[in-house]
Amino acid sequence: MKELVEKINAEFETFTAETQSLIEKGVKAAGPRARKSTLEMEKLLKEFRKLSIEEAKK
User: Fold this and answer.
1) Per residue in 1-58, pLDDT tens?
2) CA-derived radius of gyration, the chain
3) What is the pLDDT of residue 58?
4) What is the rounded CA–CA span in Å between residue 37 and residue 39?
5) How many CB atoms lie within 10 A of CB 46?
6) What are the φ/ψ torsions at residue 27 (nearest 5 degrees)?
7) Which of 13, 4, 17, 16 is nearest to 43 (CA)?
8) For residue 34, how many other CB atoms are within 10 A of its CB?
9) How many CB atoms lie within 10 A of CB 27?
């Protein structure tokens, strides 16, 4: 579970960096990268939810 949380944090850092590039610097290519990052975070968060529920049942 710890490894999964680290992946989520890393992906969020990527998302943050890309959105800052998009908003502050106007780098248009950062938009698709930020959106891709949100899709990856969605997958990771669903996996976290699944594992969290399993752990709670123990």
Assistant:
1) 999 999 999 999 999 999 999 999 999 999 999 999 999 999 999 999 999 999 999 8
2) 14
3) 83
4) 5
5) 10
6) -80, 105
7) 4
8) 19
9) 13
CB neighbourhood size of 48 (10 A): 16
- For residues 43 and 13, the answer to whether their CB atoms sit within 8 Å is no
Distance CA 35, CA 48 (A): 20
Containing 53, the helix (H) or strand (E) segment is helix 30-57
How far is C-alpha 27 from the chain's CA centre? 20
Task: Say what the pLDDT of residue 48 is.
Answer: 97
Please state the pTM of the whole predicted model: 0.88
Residue type at 11?
Answer: E
Strands of 1-58, DSSP E: none
Retrieve residue 2's tokens. Answer: 């710890």
